[in-house]
């Protein structure tokens, strides 16, 4: 590798649960600075690279996170509108303010019988172009760029966007429905904290280390193929309303974002500590888009 070549491009990594996108970029920036310090002494006091990510993921979520480096950051806008695939695990029986198991407990109801059959029957209603209202905890920008989830985390009441958005759900597949699992509901008082280590520990606690056992709270797992702008939390909230049952997100993995597919052309998170791995991933992506003939892609 030519150490003094300025690097431009895109790559993707597997973001871990419990880590913010900003923390991932901070790590990449640190690795890039260390690389520059070891190869170009005159750049040690400068920002070595411009970084950005396309299509943010919640802290609780894992999976494909696209990163733009230098001029590659200019290409990130297309990832907010591109097709994506998620695997979503939802727990039935309680619902928090955040629509996940880290929020404050807000609602709990006895579960009716026949939920699995009812779930299978209603899923086709959510395929196609549907209307969604953004959830309370989301990365939607309001008030000149402040993200809605930042207000929600701090328990500050604001007026959410009141107009539903039209989004596209291409496919919903029920992968599993079971009362035997090792997820556990965590219902706590939400604190005004952005402590990444605390969030990480909390996310790890969502799954017990014990073997799966019977739970009073069934879970179901969906594969969701959708267009850009679809809200997964809104999807499960609206499914819960159709079931007349409170629901909460317990796991979310993005398995595809445009041409990036988890396990195929995404970096392992632990490989980010070596800049040569990042450089290789960028070049691999350049070769890929040449094969795909992305005519409007420029680097």
Automatic annotation (TrEMBL):
One Pfam family per UniProt: TruB_N
Residue stretches making up the Pseudouridine synthase II N-terminal domain: 47-180
GO cellular component labels: nucleus
Keyword match Ligase: no
Sorted UniProt keywords: Isomerase, tRNA processing
Keyword Transferase: no
Superkingdom classification of source: Eukaryota
One Gene Ontology biological process: mRNA pseudouridine synthesis
Enzyme nomenclature, EC number: 5.4.99.25
Gene Ontology MF term list: RNA binding; tRNA pseudouridine(55) synthase activity
Catalytic function, reaction form: a uridine in mRNA = a pseudouridine in mRNA
Family named by the database record: Belongs to the pseudouridine synthase TruB family.
Protein name as annotated: tRNA pseudouridine(55) synthase
